[in-house]
Design a protein that fits this description.
There is one protein chain. This protein has 367 residues and is of the alpha/beta class. The protein is built from 14 helices and ten strands. The strands form two sheets. A five-stranded parallel β-sheet has the order 2-1-3-4-5, with helices on both faces. The relative contact order is 0.14.
């Protein structure tokens, strides 16, 4: 059942290229310049009237939503808020009939997310669910469902569900852009081409897993580490940190790179590992100066970046891991993969139960 892999998590990490393809299949026209989502009930008029979007979810699904926000805001210019489901309903969210609420849940059974969905509907919002389980409670109660086709995810640590949620967000953002006329066909085609290249690019990363294994063994001796990044890189840093804590039990924090000097820099001392996500060209220079700030305090820095940024980074980091080039908005779909492998191999090195980490359940059905 593990398909020759030692753990479900490793198998599921390797299934990501397929999950990407399956989630895109049948949803892109033959010319490659249009997203087709006939399953949606939302009318064109409803889509044109959306004034704001709230993305509500827990854990890894929340982290995917943060990337989804960037995609929607940059392609469609609709304001998007991200909410943790267990917080959402107690903050009296401002919802109008022009609010679209997107709930994201791999299992479709997370109690907090389901409660948030009900709260949103009670306030008159249209709810779209992005879920991996067609017959789940969330899928049944939502007004619209966009399924991810990642296949069953068994490991408690979510991997292929997260990455296929990113693809679902990409498709949905492009669909909104088409209906609202905010992107040209040419721009849509360019993004779709980049999305269709992702499966092969993930394969390229997976082929380098031994390098990540070696690094994971190094960090498994540490008690504390940091992930830093800006923009989408920060969103991925959060996912990388969650994954590492979840299965290796090593404490880590994800920080917006520019925020370190507002307090956290105090925790950087000789030898502390810092994983710097440095893929976003528009803020690269700024990220490099943040890397220098931690380096100056003795941090041991691994940068995850693109080939073309190597010269900017090599002087300030200790190690690099290069990921293939994609559009800045899509980098999360690639940069998360080395972080998934990192947490996997760190957990393995420490002898933990990778697929069933302590104190956690795959599906959290209590609030
Ligand atoms: O099934 P869901 O997507 O609603 O689950 C949400 C979280 O419980 C889940 O993503 C959790 O954070 C993962 N175990 C993280 O790997």
């Amino acid at each position: 059942e593990k398909g020759g892999y030692e753990h479900f998590m490793l198998k599921e990490i390797h299934e990501q290229p397929k999950a990407y393809r399956d989630t895109m299949r049948g949803r892109i026209n033959a010319e490659g310049n249009k997203v087709i989502l006939p399953e949606l009930n939302m009318t064109e008029e409803q889509i044109k009237n959306i004034r704001n979007i709230q993305v509500v979810a827990c854990g890894t699904a929340y982290n995917a939503g943060v990337v989804g926000r960037t995609m929607i805001e940059s392609l469609v210019r609709i304001p998007v808020e991200n909410d943790i489901a267990s917080e959402y309903r107690y903050r009296s969210p401002i919802v109008t009939p022009e609010t679209l609420v997107i709930v994201v849940s791999q299992s479709g059974e997370t109690a907090d997310t389901l409660a948030a969905l009900r709260e949103a509907q009670a306030n008159g919002a249209h709810v779209l669910a992005i879920t991996n389980v067609v017959g789940s409670s969330i899928a049944r109660e939502a007004n619209d469902v966009l399924v991810t086709l990642a296949g069953p995810e068994i490991a408690v640590a979510s991997t292929k569900a997260y990455t296929s949620q990113l693809v679902a967000f990409g498709l949905f953002a492009l669909y909104l852009a088409e209906v609202r006329g905010t992107q040209t066909e040419g721009q849509v085609a360019k993004i779709l081409a980049a999305m269709q290249a992702l499966p092969e690019q993930v394969e390229e990363i997976l082929a380098q897993k031994e390098a990540i294994k070696g690094y994971a063994e190094q960090i498994s001796e540490h008690k504390n580490l940091f992930f830093i990044g800006r923009g989408v890189d920060y969103a991925v840093a959060q996912e990388g940190s969650l994954k590492l804590k979840e299965i290796s039990y090593i404490h880590s924090e994800a920080y917006a790179a520019g925020e370190l000097k507002h307090g956290t820099l105090a925790l950087i001392e000789e030898g502390v590992p810092v994983i710097a996500l440095a893929t976003q060209e528009a803020v690269l220079e700024k990220t490099v100066s943040n890397i220098k700030e931690v380096k100056a305090r003795g941090a041991d820095v691994l940068a995850i970046t693109h080939q073309e940024h190597l010269t900017d980074l090599l002087r300030s980091v200790d190690q690099v891991f290069v990921i293939p080039k994609t559009l800045p908005m899509l980098t999360a779909a690639l940069s998360v993969v080395p972080l998934q492998l990192l947490s996997y191999y760190a957990s393995l090195a420490l002898g933990h139960d990778v697929d069933k980490p302590r104190n956690l359940a795959k599906s959290v059905t209590v609030e």
